[in-house]
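Q: Structure tokens for this one, please.
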Amino acid sequence: MIKATWHKHTLKFDRPRGTSRGWFKEKPSWFIKLRDEKTGKVGFGECGLLPGLSVDDKPGYEEMLDKVVGAINRQMPFPVLTSWPSISFGIEMAQLHLEKGEFSELFPSAFSAGKAGIEINGLIWMGDSKTMKREIAEKLQSGFTCIKLKIGAVDFDEELALLKMIREEFSPDEVVIRVDANGAFSPDEAPQKLNQLSVFELHSIEQPIKAGQWQEMAALCADTPIDIALDEELIGIHDTTERKKMMATVRPQAIILKPSLLGGFRDSNEWISIAREMGAYWWLTSALESNIGLNAISQFAAHKDVQIPQGLGTGGLYTNNVDSPLEVEANKIVYRSDKNWVIPF
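A: Here is the predicted structure, written as tokens:
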């Protein structure tokens, strides 16, 4: 018999972190624990809700967790979780961990065996230009060859100046630059801003305008000087037909997958298949999970044999993260097979 429980753990940022949607000081996560009463094996899964962005950031979250856990304990089917993607992912992760038996075996690969790292981008959060300059310098000095800047909340001219500063010192062959607007531009101003950004030979821009404006986004993607990657646009679209319709309408150059916001690995795999059909590429990004969720997403990425930097360098953002074998070394995330997990709940 499988016994299920859940535990809430509020992750504390090392300092306030800014995006165009506001500033984060903490982030809640709920952890589902499955225990096989016969064998004693356990499986942990993280329900990584992201306030202000997850479609399941709504009243009734813990009540739904109670229903799911109660159904598992009664050996009954649990409720449909289509509109609760982070809970769906937490269950999928916990079941996978219980089945495999070890955190290192969710998706076995050279990464999970501690023999190979996954290249990641260095994330530069929004802030004043002095702080962002310092962070950029630190990332480049530590060995990152791909950096991602959050833009859209401070003065645009200052952001352009930061990009100019990088390009004056590093060519596109030396440092790849991604930017993430989080939907900060209006459809009217976006074409001009994309042209201004293109001077710096960027890899891509994430979500230049707010999600849900398919025709406007399609127009941008059809005539853009920079590859456009959809992020928020994917969130909340659960039906396969609707997913294909959106992709066929917008025709983005790329999509970004956050399993906690999309419903899990099965949903991510479907998005990958649709992207391939449409000729778009993709990469994975954490949605600020703890190391438990980050480990699962990293192993999934390694299993997919990714060839471009992923957005998986978020484990060091918290002062009270779960101790794990995950580390960032230069420009890669690695799994230290000689280190142990320490689960406090």
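A few notes: The chain has a mean pLDDT of 95. The longest strand covers residues 2-19.
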